[in-house]
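Troubleshooting log. The previous structure file for this entry was overwritten by mistake, so regenerating from the original sequence record. Sequence copied from the archived sheet and checked twice against the printout by T.R.
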Amino acid sequence: MKAIVFAGGSGTRLWPLSRKKSPKQFEKLVGDRSTLQLAIDRLMPDFKPEDIYISTNSLYKDIIKSQLSKIPEKNFFFEPEKKDVAPAIALCLGKLSKKFPEEPIAILWSDHLVKQVGRFKKIIKVSAGLVKQNPEKIVFISHKPRFASINLGYIKFGNLINSRQDVNFYEFSDFKYRPDKNTAKKFIHSGHYGWNLGYFVTTPKFIYNSFKRLAPEIYANTEAILSHEGRDDYEKTLKERYGRVKSISFDNAILEKLDKKDAYVVVEDIGWSDVGSWEALKEALQRHSYENVTRGRMHLEHVKDSLIYNYDDDKLIVGLDLDENIIINTKDVILIAKKDSMPKVKKLVEGFTGTAHEKLT
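Regenerated output below.
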């Protein structure tokens, strides 16, 4: 079995730690390991380093090589420019479909936390066994919702159709992207929705053939690029052609158009969290909502339900009488905000473009 981990996101909502030159997946959010390194750690030792592939932007080539020194360099796929996920998946799975067309592959992401690692591994392994027998299928791995999130997508599932080694596989019914609060509550009460993690187990051939049927423009452009693979002009062709297709998500380009009978859904509790924002990181690491989540030097009195991260060892953060705050101190920026103001961070940072603060993004 193979695994490919996508690590090309920009992570604007975790600013000021996450920057264009070093997005969130490369930064130390939990302990002394980046979330990318933690994503690879979760796969070991079930996967050998040579069976793990990484897709990211060419801007991060040196960071990737430094953080993932055990993975062969030939397993790194570098996008020459930032596009949405569909072109990146087409390029990677196009490459792999020529080498391992029907070998099961797990498609994963670099900026998540998973607490129930053993259960996660078992789901991947059992799903791979199912796909090995059904190479023209895809398994969507979803998560039992902990709360009515409006920041995540949902997968609707139907009847139980298969059960293997204590892992249940359900019918796939539908996707719903970021519902409003009332709709999210209805989803949870129905018992037929899971959070969409973006985790899949399938075969390279199935995905690449799906591009051929459902996104022919991306497929044709990818084929034109791959026809030069192994030749001296491959990198030149990649740079010239990669950006020619429109930027579109994998969900919109492929998954929403799949025949529902071609997909299975697993809905489990693996202790998953998307740490795409500071408030999400707090939710992932806290035991109780009133607890503080902290890192670095600080002195706090009468502070609760706050996340305070200090990345400057030369400075002491002192907090007094604070509730529901996010405070992030880096070498050149201090962010201070209420926890419920975090959705505004991305727009704020985008507004720095063309100003004196752009260098801080």
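DSSP finds eleven helices and 17 strands in the chain. Archived copy saved in two places this time.
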